[in-house]
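Notes from hallway chat w/ T.B., transcribed later so I don't forget. T.B. wanted the structure written out for a chain they're using in a teaching module, and asked if we could keep both sequence and structure tokens in one place. Agreed to drop them here.
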Amino acid sequence: MRTMLLDPGMDLTLRPMRYPGFYERYRAAIRNTWTVEEVDLASDLADLATLDEGERHLINRLVAFFATGDSIVANNLVLNLYQHVNAPEARLYLSRQLFEEAVHVQFYLTLLDTYLPDHDERVKAFAAVEHIPSIRAKAEFCFRWIDSISELNRLETREDQRAFLLNLVCFAACIEGLFFYGAFAYVYWFRSRGLLGGLATGTNWVFRDESMHMEFAFEVVDTVRREEPDLFDDDLGAQVTRMMEEAVAAELAFARDLCGDGHGVMSAGNMRRYLEYVADRRLTRLGLPARYGTDNPFPFMEFQDVQELANFFERRVSAYQVAVEGDVSFDEAF
């Protein structure tokens, strides 16, 4: 009997390969290796000195979220995802994803060390999940879904499999696909004004990694729906939509904290529209109806369009490879 992707157990046989698409994603990720040492954050220091009080509040809150965001994703990958995807080629990709999450954690550690030279400020940033309400609410959303399958050692029943799919979709669509994309919008707003180029460079690479993580998870969902079409039913779809609504609400509260009375185009109102726009893209990618019908309010995000980037890894990206020398620009790639 053929083993399916969410069958309990841990198949170890790579030949014959059941899911070559997952293996190709692993190979593509290897080609797209980057290191934190390639990012020049020191060049941002002069820009930071020019920010007004509201902008400094925004950037401080943003880096406080970055301080632990990828660590939470990595924890869920290790504790919940790896053991339940029953294909060795898929686990190769998840192993690579874990490495990339570690690079992101290192990047944000370096970011905080550079942007917040004061020791006490850095300590507060790393403890943001405890004392900043808008960040704590997002962390609690993540922890709730981590805990939802923390006691699930094997996917023995259909309900077990549905619980796993909800966790997978949450981390792909809501956390990597919404929380992080919202954070990237702030970075690219600064970039559109010619500010914080070092942060934007590192974010380009993180952005691409996260897009690949998200699309891998969606392909897992696609595969399960082909193998077991009754598993992702209307009830599960409704749960995903409610989950996305909760994620949008949590991220909007964060936007209100960051934006205050607004900074021109970067306002809580426009962030709401952008988050709804992104949420609809995630829902439609999962084959569900759009919830909001909102357009992208940010012209500076047009080159980062979430729908276009969904398949970027199908093209060879010459500007993002190991051992590339000389000046590297990502503007055209987006």
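Follow-up for T.B.: Residues 305-334 have pLDDT under 50 and may be disordered. Might be a good example for the class.
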